[in-house]
Amino acid sequence: MNILLTGATGFIGQSLLRSLPLDEHRVFALVRKIDNRLDTKITQLTLDTLPKLNEQIDVFINLAGENIASQPWSNGRKKALYESRVTLTNSIRSALQVPPSLVISMSAVGFYGVTRDGIYDENTPPAPGFAHELCNAWESAANAFNSNDTRVVIYRLGVVLGKGGALEKMRLPFKLGAGGPIAGGDQWFAWIHIDDVVKVILTAIDNEAYRGTYNLVAPQTITQAHFAKAYAASLGRPAVLPTPKWLMKLIFGEMSSLLTEGPQIIPKHLVDQGFAFQHKTIEQALDHINW
């Protein structure tokens, strides 16, 4: 099977590659420039060389996208976020000579917008906001692949937890005892263990019943305060120092809404599909990560 992968050097990409048998599949990684961190069995391509690829791509796994929470959302930052998701996806669709049989593309629970109210499954109308606009455009670019010959699966990710990624960035303040509730902590915290992210991507490759949009979040819904307490406990630290909403907005501007707001999101379509989560509670997930 020929697999085209974007975001191969990212947290999810690296975890996925460790589970893909490279002797059984031929993996093509789309990169900005040749990256020595990737296994020599992986063929590296750029947007310039992709149109010259003469082989049929069976599966396109789209993990690319600059970190939405790493910088405040200036106009320039918003443009970069859009280009790394929407523009790139459109460019790949134009560059491929033959459409892939399957497209698996990431999105995010930011699709549902800025709110704390209500329970959101895949069919719940979203609240407005930049995160929704970005995710909606990204999903539209992925769905443009959809045809009788191409199956499209879109995963709306919660915060992905594992050794690295978001947890690594939060580790120091939590170790210092500064990992208490944010903006009161009553907002919902949608999360998923990296093992389940990899598992559901591989499941979609093998199971043709997977199609359409899925909330890729754990079945346990928790508040941000619950997460803070659980993560601090896993590090043997307290979680008592609160961070007020006004301070987050002062530091991060509009982007602070990713941390201070959050609706309750449930993985209805995955549950209906019969997906067996490996990590169902935040305590069990953090214990498995075993810091």
Question: How would you characterize the overall build of this protein?
Answer:
It is a single chain. The protein has 291 residues and is of the alpha/beta class. It has a single domain (2-289), classed as Rossmann fold (3-Layer(aba) Sandwich), CATH 3.40.50.720. Helix content is 36%, strand content 18%. The chain has 10 helices and 13 strands. Helix 2 (75-95) links the parallel strand 4 (59-62) and strand 5 (102-108). The model has no long low-confidence stretch (mean pLDDT 92). Residues 3-215 form the NAD-dependent epimerase/dehydratase domain. Belongs to the NAD(P)-dependent epimerase/dehydratase family. SDR39U1 subfamily. Residues 243-289 form the DUF1731 domain.
Write the layout of secondary structure elements.
Layout lengths: L1 E5 L4 H9 L6 E5 L12 E3 L13 E4 L12 H21 L6 E7 L10 E2 L9 H14 L7 E7 L1 E4 L2 H11 L12 E2 L1 E3 H13 L5 E5 L5 E2 H11 L10 H8 L4 H4 L3 E2 L2 H6 L8 H8 L2
Parallel strand pairs: 1-2, 1-4, 2-3, 4-5, 5-7, 6-13, 7-11, 8-10
Antiparallel strand pairs: 9-12
Helix pairs in contact: 1-5, 2-3, 6-10
In short:
By secondary structure, this protein is an alpha/beta fold. The chain has a single domain (2-289), classed as 3-Layer(aba) Sandwich (Rossmann fold), CATH 3.40.50. Helices cover 36% and strands 18% of the residues.
Helicity, in percent?
25-40%
Strand order of the largest sheet: 3-2-1-4-5-7-11
Shape: globular
Q: Give a short account of the largest sheet.
A: 7 strands, parallel
Rg for CA atoms = 19 Å
Which architecture does the CATH hierarchy give at level 2?
A: 3-Layer(aba) Sandwich
CATH topology (fold) name: Rossmann fold
> Total strand count, please?
13
Task: Look at the helices and sheets and give the structural class.
Answer: alpha/beta
What is the terminal separation in angstroms? 36 Å
Q: What is the name of the CATH superfamily?
A: NAD(P)-binding Rossmann-like Domain
Overall mean pLDDT:
92
CATH class: Alpha Beta
- Put simply, the count of helices is 10
Strand/helix succession: EHEEEHEEHEEHEEHEEHHHEHH
